[in-house]
Specification:
alpha/beta, seven-stranded parallel beta sheet, 14 helices, single chain, 15% strand, Rossmann fold
Length: 378
Amino acid sequence: MAPHGRMLDPDAPLKVAYLTYRGKPHVGGQGVYTRHLTKALADLGHTIEVFGGQPYPVLDERIVMHELPSLDTFNDHFPGRLPGYWEINDRFDLLEMAEFLTGTFPEPRAFSARAAHALKKRARDFDLVHDNQCLGTGILKIEERIPTIVTLHHPITKDRELEMAAAKNAYRRWSIGRWYSFVKMQGKVASKMPRIVVVSQNSIDDIHKDMGVSRDRMRLVPVGVDPELFQPVPGVERTPGRLITTASADVALKGLSYLLEAMAKLRTERDVTLTIIGKPKPGKSMRLIEELGLRPHIEFVSGVTDERIVELYSEAELAVVPSLYEGFSLPAIEAMCSGTPLVSTDGGALPEVTGVDGETTLRCPAGDSDALAATIAR
């Protein structure tokens, strides 16, 4: 007997509604997780329907996509734009606008409300709902009708903590605190959800400590990559001195500034170049690239196929994960599967994911550009 009184055949294929409010692969690890998890579930014979907001996910052709349009206030072209009143079409848009005007990141709450509305009349169409770390209040309404699993990659409290530490003044710290106020909602929702998938033991410990989620509600299911895709590419020669890293967002959590500072130090001794998988976006990192004179030595790559990413790993001499904190780190696993030597910090779950220092990775303390430069040189 399943929750909600449903009888499920454990050997029968499932009908799954998968929720992702920001699911495009090129905006971060959650988008990559969405694409590959839904494909793997379809490979196993399950029926998957994805309900997503902008930027919409890129999915396997077998998977049905339901677009739940938002006001898209944080799109690539005009991030943080103020929507016009004529764009408000329903109560969900009004909710999103109200949250936005108070300085709070509005997407989790608004998307969860849209998803709950979309699934309200389809409760009998699905055996299971899988929420990819939205954790808005609407997820609790969905759980009342359909058994729901949540994947919680890491506590966003860590993002908030690191952004606050990097803030230059009191106003900036207040603004960041307001922006991340949705985290309190996520903690309350997570504490009430009966089934939570977490991707590392480190994240389980931090979610329990920072968000108050009971350990007995969480289950460890590590993230993986397709080993048939991520593997060394025969005949591709590694370029001496070429580093590769992934930076889906210019945020303190990812530690890109420390890698840039380390690269500047290394360039005084040898020819070092850097490929960044991600888009160049105005912010601290771009300013630092100019200040350090690194622009001619850095290449940004985005919007490419998974096959091209594998080739980029095979062309690099070293992959670097300079993060201050990771709930897991897909780029670390991608590099290791591709046979690319890996330099990583000890931030968050990275020691758990990357294994033994000196054997499967070369490790250094997070937030230390001198140590990172020395480890890359090693």
